[in-house]
Amino acid sequence: MTDTVTVSVLGTGIMGAAMARNLARAGHAVRVWNRTRAKAEPLAAEGAYVADSPADAVRGADVVLTVLHDGAAVLEVMRQAAPGLRAGTAWAQSTTAGLEAMEGLAGFARERGLVFYDAPVLGTREPAEAGKLVVLAAGPSEGREAVAPVFDAVGARTVWTGEDGAEGSATRLKLVANSWVLAVTNATGEVLALAKGLGVDPADFFDAIGGGPLDMGYLRTKAALVLEDRLSPASFAVSTAAKDARLVLEAAERAGVRLDVAAASAERLARAAELGHGDEDMAAAYYAGFDGAGGER
Fold this sequence. Notes:
single chain; alpha/beta; N-(1-d-carboxylethyl)-l-norvaline Dehydrogenase, domain 2; 9 strands
């Protein structure tokens, strides 16, 4: 296996398109498919082959990379891809799919003789576009030379969590990380909503915590999106964050762990989506702090 591989990217949304673009720029042969073809077509300018079907996209690929909405979508698309798959192909599954879905995905990989890598990523639009994602990966050491060039092209580093991708150790770590991200994002929205409600200038809040242990770059970044009305285009959408919050809760329930903050985060994100902010950045959970137009821009 050389450092140049043929990669099939199934799903070219916010994350998938950025990953495909960086793979092409790294010199790999990239084949892409998206349910809405128009979202994939701009990648042709980067040298990618835009396929009409998942089966066409995966034909001849060394590595299949799935970056879709959820586990159900991944399994559906991989079943459609089945006629073009060949045994021994490496499958890097980067969708945040949750633990329950992992069982079905790993089972499909076994049935088709695919080398399965559980490979979710940490990061949103900006690090994805810069090729600076953190890849969380689990899968057999023998064969990692196939996926290593892919992970190197899309990420700043790869954190290996285990030898068996079917065990979902990388997905488990992703869910733990997501629980933190969602908690901080919702807390950011709440502090801004409370400041608005009490007539406190947010700048005074940031001055008060500035330089201390309560200060965070992520807090300031997400707050700026709300305060400067830059919630679109989304780095990571409210609707997708709501899905991830549900996956965190499902995993916690399976483990017998009660997550009150995560439950509240999921409810706030769902409410923000109901208020019409589903396609905006997840920082728009801020609007869940108001009834109706109370938090209007």
